[in-house]
Amino acid sequence: QVQLVESGGGLVRAGGSLRLSCAGSGRIFEITDMGWYRQAPGKQRELVASINTVGSTNYADSVKGRFTISRDYAKNTVTVDLQMNSLNSEDTAIYYCNAKLWLGSSYWGRGTQVTVSS
């Protein structure tokens, strides 16, 4: 199994920045892609950004140029950060960290709330 714990959410004004962090532990060396998803009230969960084992990244069109995902390993943990700049009200959502393993398993964190006030 993989355990994922998110942190860094909060309330920010439009135009501001936040940095989300996801700490992963457990079977981290079986992880392929890691990513951040978000779910706004009344909407489906959507991919925000992802990064694979060689550092290739993928972003939703709505966050390109504003968000940056990064990944780092240390001892027995993996950390995936999401730097979010120029936030707007449409970025308000619960943000979830996700990890996919080689054999197809997928793990989720509990989520962290991001609220952007206008």
Note poorly predicted spans.
none
Percent strand equals: over 45%
Number of strands: 11
Supply the number of helical segments.
0
Quaternary structure type: single chain
Alpha-carbon Rg, integer: 14 Å
The overall pLDDT average reads 96
Sketch the topology as an H/E string, one letter per element. EEEEEEEEEEE
Shape assignment: globular
Described by strand count, sense and barrel closure, the largest sheet is: 7 strands, mixed
Amino- and carboxy-terminal Cα gap: 40 Å
Structural class from helices and strands?
mainly beta
Residues in helices, as a percent range: under 10%
Layout of helices and strands, plus pairs?
Layout: E1 2-7, E2 10-13, E3 18-26, E4 31-39, E5 46-51, E6 57-59, E7 67-74, E8 77-84, E9 93-101, E10 106-108, E11 112-117
Q: What do these coordinates show?
A:
0% of the residues lie in helices and 60% in strands. It has no helices and eleven strands. The strands form two sheets. Strands 2, 4, 5, 6, 9, 10 and 11 form a seven-stranded mixed sheet that branches. Strands 1-3-8-7 form a four-stranded antiparallel sheet, with no helix packed on it. The model has no long low-confidence stretch (mean pLDDT 96).
Question: In short, what is this structure?
Answer:
The chain is mostly beta strands and 118 residues long. It is built from no helices and eleven strands.
